[in-house]
Write a structure and sequence with these properties.
Protein name: 2Fe-2S iron-sulfur cluster-binding protein
Number of helices: 1
Pfam families: Fer2
CATH class: Alpha Beta
Shape: globular
InterPro entries: 2Fe-2S_ferredoxin-like_sf, 2Fe-2S_ferredoxin-type, 2Fe2S_fd_BS, Beta-grasp_dom_sf
Helix content: 10-25%
Domain 2Fe-2S ferredoxin-type: 4-98
Structural class: mainly beta
Order of helices and strands: EEEEHEEE
Number of domains: 1
């Protein structure tokens, strides 16, 4: 199994996940709720993260995700829905407080 590292800021917590995992799969690796989530389908907005480093490592963003992020006020291109990202390589994100 190929692992990739997801780093969560501001604390610098590093979690190893299998390549291709959704970012919300960190719940399987830790007992702490590091990324909040609700629906897992990109419809609730609970899991918005700011991508600090490695945006290419999170897979392509879907047009519906772009539209939903814009509706939430995150139209700057540096935010993603963690449940819609797939960790293809190492990345660093910061959970957005809603």
């Amino acid at each position: 199994m190929i692992l990739r590292t997801l780093t969560l800021m501001p604390d610098g917590v590093e979690i190893a996940l299998p390549k291709g995992s959704a970012l919300t799969d960190i719940e399987l690796e830790t007992s702490e709720p590091l990324i909040p989530f609700g629906c897992r389908s990109g419809a609730c907005g609970a899991c918005v993260v700011e991508v600090i480093d490695g945006s290419d490592a999170l897979g392509e963003i879907d047009p519906e995700e772009i539209d939903f992020l814009e509706d939430l006020g995150w139209a700057d291109g540096s935010h993603r829905l963690a449940c819609q990202c797939r960790l293809l390589d190492s990345a660093t994100v910061r959970v957005v407080e809603n």
